[in-house]
Amino acid sequence: MAAWNLYRHRNPDGSSKDWAIRSNSDGSITTRWGKTASCLPGVSNRSGVRKFDIEKQKQAKGYVFIAEVDIDGDGNVLFPSKTSVNTSQRPPELDATPQFVPTPRVEALYWTIDCHAKQSIRVDLGIEVRRLIGAIQNVSNHQPKPEQDWDGWQQWIDATLNAETFELSGQIKSVLGVLPWLFLLALKTKGFHGVEIDIATETARDLSVDLKAEQDVLAFFGTDLDSIRETAEILGLLKPRLNLAAAMSDTDDCWF
């Protein structure tokens, strides 16, 4: 019997991305994701959550059940023989009265990018990647160095160097610091057409670009909104605060 439930999200531009989930014998959950293809490269394992809850979250975001499938260790999706893909199918009946399960704390972030944009946009993407990395390097010179260096910096530079289509995925742990996540969010906010960037937590919760709504992720990196505000403003993730004291100091005295 197939072990995975496969879901698909169709974008307005006609492209789509897939997400699959299965329950493991030890009670943990495994999910895979990526653009619609024969292989789903993104993968994560987590415990303390219900398969029912995660599937409901995805369905609420527009994911539609496709079929029960097998997926091997490399992420290759294998449809059962003589079984066609039918979007009207529904997954097996789940417990209609799920018990409350506390939301687990963030343990890692998982990210993927599918760049299938036209060449002119890929060129602009490469320029923006290098601009953001340069800005982050300037900021990081005045901040404590993280426990580990993120290899994603070089991955992004190499991937965008020749302005070709590409796919990347990876994981961000707390020891890498908050800057890789802010970099990905800054790119995501640019909204390059044909460039899909997804960032999710251990529980497959998709992250927004609203830093104020992601307090648990900031806590995961051991920081808070005030501490990263200057960096976020430089990257375009927050609007600069108006310094009233400085503004008033430049105003002539109008008292008579």
Structure description:
- The chain has 256 residues and is α+β, with helices and mostly antiparallel strands.
- The protein folds into 2 domains: 75 residues; 126 residues, no CATH class.
- Helices cover 30% and strands 23% of the residues.
- It has a 6-stranded antiparallel beta sheet, with helices on one face.
- Helix 2 runs antiparallel to helix 3 and helix 2 runs antiparallel to helix 4.
- The protein is globular, with a radius of gyration of 21 Å.
Short account of what is shown:
It contains 7 helices and 9 strands; from the N terminus they run ββββαβββααβαβααα. The chain is of the alpha+beta class and 256 residues long. Residues 82-88 and 96-103 have low confidence and may be disordered.
Short descriptors:
9 strands; alpha+beta; globular; six-stranded antiparallel beta sheet; 256 residues; 30% helix; 2 domains
